[in-house]
Amino acid sequence: MTTNSNPGYFISFEGIDGAGKSTHIDAFAKLIKERFPNREVVLTREPGGTALGEQLRQLLLNAPMNLETEALLMFAARREHLIQIIEPALLAGKIVISDRFTDASFAYQGGGRGLSLDKLNTLEKWVQGKSDQTILQPNLTILFDLPGSVAEARRSKVRAPDKFEKMDLDFFERVRQEYLRRAKNDMKRFHIVDATQTQEVIWRDLELLKLPI
Ligand SMILES: Nc1ncnc2c1ncn2[C@@H]1O[C@H](COP(=O)(O)OP(=O)(O)OP(=O)(O)O)[C@@H](O)[C@H]1O
Ligand SMILES: Cc1cn([C@H]2C[C@H](O)[C@@H](COP(=O)(O)O)O2)c(=O)[nH]c1=O
Hints:
With 213 residues, the protein is α/β, with parallel strands linked by helices. It is 53% helix and 15% strand. The chain has helices spanning 21-35, 51-62, 67-91, 102-112, 117-128, 148-158, 169-185, 199-208; strands at residues 2-3, 9-15, 41-45, 95-99, 135-136, 140-145, 190-194. The strands form 2 sheets. A 5-stranded parallel beta sheet has the order 3-4-2-6-7, sandwiched between helices. Strands 1-5 form a two-stranded parallel ribbon. It binds adenosine-5'-triphosphate and the ligand Cc1cn([C@H]2C[C@H](O)[C@@H](COP(=O)(O)O)O2)c(=O)[nH]c1=O. The ligand Cc1cn([C@H]2C[C@H](O)[C@@H](COP(=O)(O)O)O2)c(=O)[nH]c1=O binds at residues 17, 45-47, 61, 74, 99-100, 104-105, 108-109, 164. Adenosine-5'-triphosphate is lined by residues 15, 17-23, 154-155, 158, 198-199, 202.
């Protein structure tokens, strides 16, 4: 069973590289602050969010490594992120917005690189498992969905690729399909944004989201 029974509210942004998460996440955090002036908003990211997590991010995004090492480091960074940032914030009733969370591990290490679902489920249980046997998950996951070719064209205009962004279109199609599979299996948690639309149309969609906070 997955849950977030804390007084806080947990939102994650997901999607393949170049889908447009970073373009919208700051303004979205600002919108949430305006809408819920009595609640503190914590904006964070994965891999990262803590001093150790940011160091691990540098390694993960740049150093070639074995797939299992990569998954273990992603979850190690997540464990630190949960303990230091996410869980205390949720317990204190804050709204946490994270640029990526565990769906990214299932999509990239699982769908993209082929790590078994069993291993990912074990890591998820280990890292996010609670004493009441539930697994901490976001209350809401906003998935920016678009074809890999469109994302690649957008990325190539603005930055040099990191280790993941150098992967080919087939990789990103597998990542995308795993995100969509997970969304289909948990429609209550996921909100899918058609990220091929203009930034203005996407922003309107985000503005119209009803949040049961
Ligand atoms: N709806 C859109 N239409 C056209 N271009 C867009 C749109 N959204 C974002 N972009 C552009 O695409 C590029 C990639 O966007 P962005 O960096 O927000 O993606 P991202 O999902 O955060 O990627 P990553 O996960 O790799 O950080 C940027 O140059 C951005 O301006
Ligand atoms: C959390 C997480 C991330 N990744 C990958 C996905 C992206 O390529 C990078 C993060 O870069 P971003 O520009 O901040 O989105 O890391 C992953 O493979 N597995 C994960 O669990």
